[in-house]
User: Which sequence fits this backbone?
């Protein structure tokens, strides 16, 4: 080249590196922390997780056994600090053990739905063409049936066990993540870094999972918090219709049973209701914070 | 010509950036005058603060960026005490701005005539007929073909050059005292750029307005400037008459910048022995893009991007593919790297047909032909560390991780980056450093051919020179063949042994660079070469020994 080497050094680009940046986690936490509501959501979530973990410590034994007189008011009997329901079961124990069931439903159903959504969305978005057409019409078919009705049908067919409820919730809620992943993939698949990987000779499956997916994931993670919240609500709604799994103390079951004594002993239904409210609230607040932390473009 | 009173005067203008930016002051004590009938070019690299100066004059700075000191005078009148309403009255009327990208600066929903009319409605009390006559007149003045038709057109119906003419018409319609043009020709092809520059020159002669012309391109400066001011990181390092600054730059920074501008005189071509093996051969390539029709909608018209294209690339040779946007040059790069498949024709790499190989053979052949992309930010996966990015290719082709990482580290050294860079993520680097990472990745598979698609067009001129020097260096050291796609004829002149000029999908001329540049045969090549901005100006090979010496 015509440019002297001296000049090149005299001129411009420092070959030394910019100062080290703080790690990704630190940056992430700093951004998340800016949103106070999200931090509050995190605190609530930690409380729910603590309740689930400590259920056997604070309220040992089967939560479905009879511990005191039926319909004991809260704060009257130290054996059942939050009172008992019509069968004399401890409400506090129900809430603590119910946290396990609700969290499990939230997490597992979300994993199922996001998993199906990612595979279908990624395949449709990456290959496009007729593959995309077929998969998206299939998705449309699912979306045209109201998801709760579909869930009722599935549970009616498979029986009201906890596993089938979780599976059913996963099956009815994969369509939104699938559409979201597809949209991300469609915009990312023509990006130069994807072409660069292709021109290195990378196989399509590796390109999808190693190159595109990590870049497509942030909005899906945010959306997962919404799915978690709706999964818990769907389970509660099923239990309220007496289609829940009677062998587990889930919050939905508790509300469903408290319904019949709502006018005389409101706390039987309201206490688990509050637990659901706070848990769902914690997910949506955290989702908001995740969104801000993972999508710095929307900072302002 | 430039003896009038200053139309625009910056005195000690200081603009502060919000806290946490890379530097506290975007502009530090800028003093600059634009007189009536004068074109002052404000030159600088990206981040030098040149656009902020323009926005400060218009009082259109983004929130958080503010004028911290100094005065801005328009026709001798201090702008600082003016109210927002008074500023609105001045904008468009006494001072007007021409933006870089006319497609985004025009409202896509409104007809062109309506948008020019809006300026007149806001600032004058002309009646409808007078306004229409004025729109017609101004569109004629900016030499739009069929002015009446253009007024009725929507922006997307006009070509890029015509849209920029509309922007200029909008800026001129009220005969402002000052026109600020912020990179007005950067988004245009060279032949269009030449026409628009000529138009701006003519208008300035006719109207006697002062023009503050912001650009990064010294070729454009040579074409249009009366006076030049050079900015470096917010500080004015040099200003003076154009001929003076361009041919006898004083400040070391200006000298370095000008020395980095590629001269139009091609260096002697590398001695390629005529019996050097052909490493890449294309035969009769055709590619037509047919848009996929919607379920009920009509099929859109197919576009023939490449037509019957053939070429040969020998070992150690650099073939430039030059042409304007839409000429099909990028399609060629994508076909030979098999990112897309040609409709017909063959791509031979060492005798094997790459275009029609089976998937497994394609993956094996890919190691012989690698690509360097235009935008180094977009072509590096933001979620991977640099070392993984570079080691990826060898690992895909079966190399052990430790060995691949060792090679990646030595490649980082080869492209003049410290091996410690491997642990970082792409966003932590500057543009030129990222492009060097892209080059290291392309080299990791030890390919025979590197296809570079506009590898320096996203970079500042100084960084560009550095990357080009690196490429030239590596080519010689590693016996690489380069297929170099570019729209910039200056860059092509520097690096390429032979050039292939493309227009509308076809090769119109091909030959040794020096011959094509000095004696172009095809009319299209002739117009292309005549359009290179500042072609009459040869950047002086300024001596650099003065730097640091007494």
Assistant:
């Amino acid at each position: 080249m015509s440019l002297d080497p001296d000049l090149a050094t005299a001129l411009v680009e420092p070959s030394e590196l910019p100062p080290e940046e703080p790690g990704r986690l630190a940056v992430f936490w700093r951004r998340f922390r800016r949103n106070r509501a999200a931090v509050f959501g995190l605190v609530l979530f930690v409380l729910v997780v603590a309740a689930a973990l400590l259920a056997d410590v604070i309220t040992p034994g089967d939560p479905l056994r009879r511990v005191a007189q039926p319909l004991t008011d809260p704060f009257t009997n130290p054996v059942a600090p939050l009172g008992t329901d019509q069968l004399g079961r401890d409400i506090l124990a129900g809430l603590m053990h119910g946290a396990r069931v609700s969290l499990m439903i939230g997490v597992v159903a979300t994993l199922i739905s996001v998993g199906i959504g990612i595979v279908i969305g990624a395949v449709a978005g990456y290959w496009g063409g007729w593959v995309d057409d077929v998969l998206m019409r299939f998705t449309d078919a699912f979306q045209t049936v109201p998801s709760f009705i579909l869930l009722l049908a599935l549970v009616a067919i498979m029986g009201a066990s906890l596993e089938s409820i979780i599976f059913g919730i996963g099956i009815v809620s994969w369509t939104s993540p699938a559409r979201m992943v597809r949209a991300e993939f469609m915009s990312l698949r023509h990006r130069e870094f994807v072409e660069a990987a292709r021109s290195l000779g990378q196989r399509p499956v590796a390109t999808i999972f190693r190159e595109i997916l990590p870049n497509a994931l942030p909005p899906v993670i945010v959306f997962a918090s919404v799915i978690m919240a709706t999964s818990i609500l769907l389970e509660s709604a099923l239990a309220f219709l007496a289609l829940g799994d009677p062998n587990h103390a889930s919050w939905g079951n508790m509300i469903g049973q408290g319904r019949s004594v709502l006018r005389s002993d409101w706390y039987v239904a309201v206490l688990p209701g509050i637990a659901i409210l706070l848990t769902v609230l914690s997910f949506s607040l955290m989702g908001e914070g995740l969104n801000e932390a993972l999508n710095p473009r929307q900072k302002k | 010509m430039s003896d009038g009173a200053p139309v625009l005067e910056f005195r000690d203008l200081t603009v502060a950036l919000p806290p946490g930016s890379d530097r506290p002051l975007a502009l530090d004590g800028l003093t600059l005058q634009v007189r009536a009938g004068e074109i002052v070019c404000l030159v600088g690299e990206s981040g030098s603060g040149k656009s902020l100066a323009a926005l400060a004059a218009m009082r259109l700075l983004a929130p958080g960026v503010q004028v911290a000191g100094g005065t801005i005078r328009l026709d001798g009148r201090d702008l600082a005490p003016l109210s927002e309403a008074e500023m609105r009255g001045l904008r468009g009327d006494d001072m007007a701005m021409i933006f870089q990208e006319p497609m985004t600066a025009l409202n896509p929903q409104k007809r062109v005539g309506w948008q020019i009319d809006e300026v007149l409605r806001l600032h004058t009390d002309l009646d409808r007929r007078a306004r229409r006559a004025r729109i017609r007149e101004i569109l004629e003045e900016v030499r739009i073909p069929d002015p009446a038709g253009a007024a009725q057109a929507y922006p997307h119906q006009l070509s890029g050059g015509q849209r920029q003419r509309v922007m200029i018409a909008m800026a001129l319609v009220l005969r402002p005292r000052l026109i600020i043009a912020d990179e007005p020709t950067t988004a245009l092809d060279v032949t269009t750029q030449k026409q628009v520059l000529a138009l701006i020159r003519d208008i300035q002669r006719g109207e006697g307005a002062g023009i503050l012309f912001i650009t990064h391109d010294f070729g454009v400066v040579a074409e249009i400037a009366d006076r030049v001011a050079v900015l470096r990181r917010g500080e004015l390092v040099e200003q003076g008459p154009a001929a003076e600054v361009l041919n006898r730059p004083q400040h070391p920074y200006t000298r370095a910048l000008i020395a980095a501008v590629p001269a139009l005189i091609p260096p002697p071509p590398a001695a390629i022995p005529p019996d050097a093996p052909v490493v890449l051969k294309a035969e009769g390539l055709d590619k037509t893009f047919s848009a996929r029709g919607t379920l009920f909608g009509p099929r859109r018209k197919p576009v023939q991007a490449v037509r019957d294209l053939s070429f040969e690339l020998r070992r150690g040779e650099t073939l430039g593919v030059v042409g304007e946007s839409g000429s099909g040059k990028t399609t060629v790069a994508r076909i030979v790297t098999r990112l897309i498949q040609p409709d017909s024709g063959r791509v031979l790499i060492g005798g094997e047909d790459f275009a029609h190989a089976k998937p497994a053979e394609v993956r094996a052949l890919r190691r012989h032909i690698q690509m360097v992309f235009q935008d180094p930010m977009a072509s590096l996966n933001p979620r991977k560390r640099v070392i993984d990015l570079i080691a990826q290719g060898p690992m895909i082709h079966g190399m052990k991780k430790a060995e691949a990482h060792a090679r990646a580290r030595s490649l980082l050294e080869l492209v003049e980056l410290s091996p410690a860079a491997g642990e970082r993520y792409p966003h932590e680097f500057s543009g030129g450093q990222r492009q060097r990472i892209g080059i290291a990745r392309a080299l990791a598979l030890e390919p025979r051919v590197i296809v570079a698609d506009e590898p320096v067009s996203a970079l500042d001129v100084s960084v560009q020179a550095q990357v080009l020097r690196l490429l030239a260096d590596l080519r010689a050291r590693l016996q690489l063949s380069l297929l170099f796609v570019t729209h910039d004829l200056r860059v092509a002149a520097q690096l390429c042994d032979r050039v292939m000029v493309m227009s509308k999908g076809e090769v119109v001329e091909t030959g040794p660079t020096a011959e094509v540049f000095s004696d172009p045969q095809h009319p299209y090549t002739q117009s292309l070469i005549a359009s290179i901005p500042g072609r009459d100006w040869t950047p002086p090979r300024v001596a650099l020994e003065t730097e640091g010496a007494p």
